Amino acid sequence: MWRLIKNLIPFPLILIIIFYAINTYNYNDWAVEKTYCASYNYKEQKRPIKIAILDSGIKQLDIFNGTSFTTYNALENSNDVNPVYNHGTQILSIINGATSNFTHMGVHVDLDVLDIQILDHNGIGNIESFTRGLEYALEQSPDIIHMSFSTTENDTKIEKLIKKAGENNILLVAASGNSLGFESGYPARYKEVISISAIDENMNRYGYSSINYIDYVAPGVNVPVINSLGELENVSGTSYSAAHFTNLLAILKTKLTTKELLDYLDHNTERLGNHKYFGNGIVRYGC
Fold first, then answer.
1. What is the pLDDT along the chain (287 residues), one digit of tens a residue?
2. Contacting residues for 50 by C-beta, under 8 A, at least 6 apart
């Protein structure tokens, strides 16, 4: 039998198959499969979706080829971002729907990315950088503002900027936070912001996630991302569930107005349990 198989499959091909099996063993597409029941063809997009990502800066990897970038460093008030910290790159890999080693981070969508750095090389920011980042984002009139971070500080200027964004029909998404069961932080608490918590492959709550002020949940436990070195890795946290939700919003925004999109969310949600943990549940596309 071995002789027959060897004759049918060249030995180098066997090595390639083994290599990819080893390198993709820990990665799967469960996050995409839980959210999307229908396929989406990004080639039918009429225009790229403009999204402001307030984070640690994004490494413009080859895997993001075709994505348009505009950069702003709110820490230094310059146009030069310094994406030493992995987080921003990981977040975009999900929102953009990047693919690596046959693994899908999300569903691909064409984007115009406003890469707004408000977090430093340690992933730490402040109210001043957040304020400047939001002000810059609003000047660019994005479709979506994504914020995969959380703070306990409620700032009145930030609140006014968030309200202004909502009044201009900009969709705002934020991670609820990983506070070990304490209440969700800001900006997720603001009523204009869609607050996202995390679930695992079995639809169970992520143990570190915050409670209360939750609107929806999305996959965020052991989900694949691409880091700033272009490497595939598994990560967990509400940052990543928020990114998966934003990926879905971007898909919906290619077809729907903001009002139609919000109606879609209301009518395509699967409830999972107690509202303080799961909010309204998981939104599913084409299910």
1. 434 333 444 544 444 444 444 444 445 789 999 999 888 877 778 899 999 999 999 999 999 988 999 999 999 999 999 999 999 999 999 999 999 888 999 999 999 999 999 999 999 999 999 999 999 999 999 999 999 999 999 999 999 999 999 999 999 999 999 988 889 999 999 999 999 999 999 999 999 999 999 999 999 999 999 999 999 999 999 999 999 999 999 999 999 999 999 999 999 999 999 999 999 999 999 88
2. 111, 112, 114, 140, 141, 142, 143, 144
Look at residue 17 and tell me if it is in a domain.
no
**Amino acid residing at 124:** I
Task: Report the predicted TM-score, pTM, of the whole model to 2 decimal places.
Answer: 0.89
Return d(Cα 140, Cα 262) in angstroms, integer. 22
Residue 198's CATH number: 3.40.50.200
Identify the burial level of 91 via C-beta atoms within 10 angstroms of its C-beta, where 0-12 means exposed, 13-18 middle and 19 or more buried: buried
Note whether residue 117 is domain-resident.
yes
Q: How many domains does the chain have?
A: 1
162 occurs within a structural domain:
yes
Q: What is the DSSP-derived secondary structure letter of residue 213?
A: S
- 95 belongs to a structural domain: yes
Q: Could you tell me the residue range of the domain that residue 140 belongs to?
A: 30-283
